[in-house]
From TrEMBL:
It comes from Edaphobacter aggregans. This is Uncharacterized protein. It comes from the Bacteria.
Amino acid sequence: MAVVTDIREESRVAGRQRWQMALDRTEFRAGDVGELEAVARSGARLQVPVLGVEIDAAGEVWHVVEKPLAAGTAVSGRVGAREV
């Protein structure tokens, strides 16, 4: 399990937003795609596709998504078809 540590807006085009989320740990590498999953308080499973992964100048790994999760949310991930 990992925890969302930071969220920032990557872009906003024609009313569509893309976000970047940082995690306290990750198996994703630059260029990877996959999925993050969290469990809501209601018990519903939230699945968030990871559209790409970028690493900034400070070495922080950012997961590009269209639907961000709140900081502090516990997540599990899947790179392509491999669970991490």
